Amino acid sequence: MSTITEITSSSAFTSQISSLPPTTAAVIFFHTPWAAPCAQMSLILKTLASSYPPQEPPAVSFLSLDAEALPDISESFDVTAVPFLVIQRDGKVLEKVSGSDAAKVREAVERHAGKGGNTGKMGLPPALEVQRREEDDTSAQQTNGETSNNLSKYAPGANDPATAPEMSSTQEQREELESRLKELVKAAPVMLFMKGTPSHPQCGFSRTIVGILREKGVRYGFFNILADEDVRTGMKTFSDWPTFPQLYAGGEFVGGLDIVKEELESDPEFFAPYVAAPKGQGGMAAPEAQKQPATASA
């Protein structure tokens, strides 16, 4: 059966791709270790790869690489979100699939590499079926020799004592963090929550969005989420967006890199209200050494 080859360097990627016969379809899987959908997609692809028996020349070759660890490769395929799949043959891109839709991925791979063996109705292991255990409503359970009612049917009454304090320290911390995040997103007219700093981005997506803001002449504040785990975790819930970078404009959430690109495609003047420098000269509204940016400077 076929397996997935993990690519850890640009040279290894070039070598692997160049070694493939021109008839072999290369399925290139871009992922990040922190994105939960990527773990799901990895399992899907491992199952799919196992359905293709070894043959010469191979019909398909599965490659996997960290999109952030190899940003040059990610940018060359215009990867703006993960999980992301690219199918190419003989150096030509045949199809791209974004997201973790198992059926869509399977159809794309089979469209260009043919069908593998039988691995279930959708090319994946069948879903587990869970049957609810029937219980006699009138039955009783024996506990330490005493008869007790089934606790699953218990509902607290109005006179029952409280089982938890009205406000826990965890709740207070959450409210405090939310208050802090509300201030952060308005710290500058345009706020970028990114990995690293504008001069030293720590991922390809952050590097790309910094380039877009600079090219558009936008003055912006930034926050390095790698420097504060509370903000990094909290922003995912606060924005209802699981990945970074995240961009805010006027205190309102715009989206990640892919959404920013879509906004600019539909409206090239999207950033016009926030331009404070000639195009190509946009930049930070606060010193990079500051983890929490100040408002934009003149």
Note down, in words, how this protein is organized.
With 298 residues, the protein is α/β, with parallel strands linked by helices. The chain is built from eight helices and 14 strands. Strands 1-3-2-4-5 form a five-stranded mixed sheet. Strands 13-12-8-11-14 form a five-stranded mixed sheet. Strands 6-7 form a two-stranded antiparallel sheet. Strand 9 (196-197) and strand 10 form a beta hairpin. Helix 5 packs across helix 7. The longest helix is centred in the middle third of the chain and has 16 residues, at 169-184. It starts with a strand and ends in a 14-residue tail after the last strand.
Tally the helices. Answer: 8
- Compressed to H and E, one letter per element, the order equals EHEHEHEEHEEHEEEHEHEEHE
Widest sheet: strand ordering:
1-3-2-4-5
- Contiguous runs where pLDDT drops below 50 for at least 5 residues: 118-130, 135-148, 286-298
Percent strand? 15-25%
Radius of gyration: 25 Å
> Largest sheet, described in full?
5 strands, mixed
Name its key features.
single chain, about 300 residues, alpha/beta, 5-stranded mixed β-sheet, about 30% helix, about 20% strand, disordered C terminus
Compact description:
By secondary structure, the protein is an alpha/beta fold.
Q: How does the SSE layout of this entry go?
A:
Blueprint: E1 4-7, H1 10-19, E2 25-31, H2 36-50, E3 60-66, H3 71-76, E4 84-89, E5 92-98, H4 102-113, E6 141-143, E7 146-148, H5 169-184, E8 190-194, E9 196-197, E10 200-201, H6 204-215, E11 219-224, H7 229-238, E12 246-249, E13 252-255, H8 257-266, E14 283-284
Parallel strand pairs: 1-3, 2-3, 8-11, 11-14
Antiparallel strand pairs: 2-4, 4-5, 6-7, 8-12, 9-10, 12-13
Helix pairs in contact: 5-7
